[in-house]
Amino acid sequence: MEALQHLPEYNSKWLLYGVGFENLGKNDRYEKALLREIKPNEVLLKVEAVSLCFSDIKVIKQGNEHPRLIGRDLSSDPVVLAHEVAASVVYAGSMRQSMFSPGEKYIIQPDIFYDGKAVTMGYVLDGALQQYIIAGDEILDGDEGCYLFPMRSGIGYSEAALCEPWSCVEASYHIPYRTVLKNQGIALIIGNEGIYGEPYTMGELITQTHCPKRIIVSNVNRNFFNEIKDISNKYKIDLIEEDNVKNWPDINVKYTDSAGFDDIIMLGAPEPRMVEEAADMLARFGVFAIVASEPIAQKANIDVGRLHYDGILFTGTNTKSIETAYSCQTSIDIPSGGAMWLAGGCGPMGQMHVQRTCERDNGPEFILVTDIDDTRLQEVKNKFSNLAEARGASLVCATANEAPLTDEKFDYIVILAPVIELIAQAFDKLAPNGIVNLFAGVPIGTKIPVDVSNCYLHGQRWIGSSGTSNAHMRSILEKIESKSLETNRSVAAVGGLDAAKDGLIAVAQGAKPGKVIIYPQIHFPLTSIMDLKQNAPVVFEKLEDGAFWSIEAEMALLAVSEYGDD
Questions:
Q1: Is 454 a member of any domain?
Q2: Pick from 202, 186, 166: nearest CA to 255
Q3: Which residue has the higher pLDDT, 152 or 521?
Q4: Closest to 512 measured CA to CA, from 356, 370, 379
Q5: How far apart are CA 503 and CA 319, in angstroms?
Q6: Mind listing the pLDDT tens digit for each residue in 502-531?
Q7: Which range of residues forms the domain containing residue 237?
Q8: Most CB within 10 Å of its CB: which of 93, 213, 300, 491?
Q9: Residues 61 and 113 grouped into a single domain
Q10: Rounded to an integer, what distance in angstroms lies between the CA atom of residue 235 and that of residue 516?
Q11: What stretches of 401-499 show up as alpha helix (H) in DSSP?
């Protein structure tokens, strides 16, 4: 084990002190500070490469108001951004030396949970826009075990850092559905006028292993209430009958201590205002199910920000079986055949979705990619048309004005740009039994009018996701290691730690047609891949096919660049 005196003395990092790029760093520079002593339960990691993400831009734009930073004062408690990282071990504390050795390479799963709380890297824990990360119990002994995943030899730093964004893409097509009420959750079942004689049934929504701790029932007929009462007695559920619910915030406080209901089930077509108020009382990862056969009178204003950040689900059925509203939720991966629209699909993450869609066996027959930039559209067409054609699919790249959207309905729509008008258009262009997937998040509290009737009358599902899981990270890492996924094809520009702010500005402006990779251990200006021909020809000649970043190009860059902080 390395002696303590051989540890680095200083750590250079970019700190965000508030809203806007003017609050990133000091005088447009990163800061240098003494590296504190490593405790026995900690591991010191050297950040080898970090991929910049548009999520970092959201933090810069929103500051303390970002959903994951509520209650934090960045002016006195600044955050280090970035969470897509490849690192190597420098030193392991005495309690960790049997598990970690200097030189070992890892990627970090940033969606870290510790003692039941989210302590996400780049939000709660310091992120990777720095030279060194001190990994403590949260990362090494989290709720899901260790959040460091070892890299096999022969894997480059950039392709490993891109594992996290690729796993977010993969996770967005494998959002787990609950087909029963949440175990130990709180459910609300509420009827609307005119449903008293309707023969609704629960089916198998409650089982021995998936049993809510409390059910609140309001405004239902006695036969149905007695069915719920029998189930509650059988499983020892706290059953409460509530008079007509009129004040949603009050019952949310009364029965959930403001945490929200895990399941809200509405029987009969509700008024739009009732949907709006009730949906705001849904807990994270909650299910909102409507069981009705008549359309709602008009559109309801739904918080689409919560679809992305809180993982809530809208579903329903036009039968009398409440169970059907849950059991109809099958895989949300791309369906075979049909039409798919990737809205705003030319950005760094959008291109990953496009690549996945075009490569997917038995994927959609028609793939539409829209964007506002003709140059980026042409690049996507050049990159991926052959992949789609190889399996007999058609890839069309067009601006929103040129796109064939007038009469076209889509079976699957992925929103890849946080644009309100685009999201609203997606709901209107969704086919029966189709899926809207909000991959790009807008702030929580952003509401748009949508026809909720489509969920229960036409089988539509509205979903969203943010982040990834250990399983998806491992899956993507295996694909990288087996060379079945070329993540380096996503790289558009590279730079050293001093170029991080320029890189983030480029991400915010959509100025690079792909991902920006920062190497914190070197000095190198932000440089597009193709500009390396003039600026660093020895690196350019190592590109794959003269166009794509590669392990060899990365090694050449690290060899010719200046190391150190100053």
A1: no
A2: 186
A3: 521
A4: 379
A5: 52
A6: 999 999 998 888 899 999 999 999 999 999
A7: 186-330
A8: 491
A9: yes
A10: 53
A11: 420-428, 453-457, 470-481
DSSP for 96-136, written as a single string: TTTT--TT-EEEE----EETTEE--BTTTB--SSBSEEEE-
Residue with tokens 């099958």: 330
Residue 403 banded pLDDT, cuts 50, 70, 90 = low
**pLDDT tens digits along 310-332:** 989 999 999 999 999 988 655 56
Please give the Cα distance from 398 to 375 (Å, whole number).
Answer: 11
pLDDT in tens, 185-210: 999 999 886 666 678 899 999 988 88
Residue 20 sits in the same domain as residue 106? yes
Q: Which among 357, 413, 349 has a CA at the least distance from the CA of 385?
A: 357
Compute the radius of gyration of the chain from its Cα atoms. 25
The pTM of this model reads: 0.84
User: What is the distance of C-alpha 321 from the center of its chain?
Assistant: 32
Q: Output the 3-class SS for 154-175.
A: CCCHHHHHCHHHHHHHHHHCCC
Question: CA angle, 112 as apex, 111 and 118 as ends, to 5°?
Answer: 90
With respect to residue 411, please indicate whether it lies within any of the assigned structural domains.
no
Residue type at 142?
A: G
As given in the structure block, the two tokens for residue 513 are 């047609």
CA distance 106 to 100: 10
192 in the same domain as 130:
no
